[in-house]
Design goal:
Layout (H helix, E strand, L loop, with lengths): L16 E5 L6 H11 L4 E2 L3 E2 L14 E2 L2 H9 L3 E7 L2 E6 H9 L4 E5 L1 H10 L4 E6 L3 H11 L4 H15 L7 E4 L3 H16 L6 H5 L4
Parallel strand pairs: 1-7, 1-8, 2-7, 3-4, 8-9
Antiparallel strand pairs: 3-6, 5-6
Helix pairs in contact: 1-7
The structure holds guanosine-5'-monophosphate.
The site of guanosine-5'-monophosphate has 15 residues, from strand 5, strand 6, strand 7 and helix 4.
Length: 211
């Protein structure tokens, strides 16, 4: 007789929500783009923001660009899974996009700030939070300057936030130090692979043996 009785649990085949976050200038965007190339099925959520588009940014691809009053209306209508004011502008993640995509069984990746990531964890504790940290303060400063997208004043503002933000890394599930981009991408990929190897993602696979 079989010694093990399997319980009939209602395990879900939902997708996994990965949240890539960390201070500005740590290379989150580059890591997310590389991950998308390696995992074409991974759906990157396009955020909504009230900041002005930068050169080359495309509506609907980089962000949905909205006026402040329209964003505030969306807050009132509870359309965001999370939202935050980052450096004076609003940023938010569509609740509908994330929940519907996860329900369909696809994995979703968010590239958002730390306040937003912690809101997501509160609402969806099963979300996997990955903190991307700069290797050194000097490196962080150099990257923000090299990016050429922000004024010196803005760079100073972003740097001064970083020290406080680093303390919040302990509330994440994983920390990846972005010293070399390829190595950082490999580490985040390893997290994705490990999380996708949890038994709850193999319900359909194991069902075949029961037939
Ligand atoms: P940037 O203006 O440089 O594109 O983004 C500024 C910061 O806002 C970055 O740290 C970025 O990750 C974050 N961000 C982008 N989209 C969202 C979002 O939907 N929610 C939150 N909370 N932060 C976001």
């Amino acid at each position: 007789m079989c010694p093990i009785k399997m319980s009939q649990s209602a395990e879900s085949q939902k997708g996994v929500l990965f949240v890539i976050s960390g201070p500005s200038g740590t290379g989150k965007g580059t890591i997310c783009r590389a991950l998308q190339q390696e995992n074409p099925a991974l759906r990157l959520s396009v955020s909504t923001t009230t900041r002005f588009p930068r050169n080359g940014e495309i509506e609907g691809e980089h962000y949905y660009f909205l006026k402040k009053q329209d964003f505030e209306k969306m807050i009132q209508e509870d359309q965001f899974l999370e939202w935050a004011k980052v450096y004076g502008n609003y940023y938010g993640t569509s609740r509908q996009f994330v929940l519907e995509t996860l329900d369909k069984g696809s994995d979703v990746i968010l590239e958002i700030d730390i306040q937003g990531a912690l809101q997501v964890k509160e609402k969806l504790p099963e979300a996997v939070l990955i903190f991307i940290a700069p290797p050194t303060k000097f490196e962080l400063e150099s990257r923000l300057i090299a990016r050429g997208t922000d004024s010196l004043e803005e760079i100073q503002r972003r740097l001064s936030c970083t020290i406080d933000e680093l303390k919040l890394a302990t509330r994440y599930d994983y920390v990846v130090i972005n010293d070399y981009i390829e190595r950082a991408v490999d580490k985040v990929q390893a997290v994705i692979t490990a999380e996708k190897s949890r038994p709850r993602h193999f319900k359909t696979f194991f069902e075949q043996f029961a037939q």
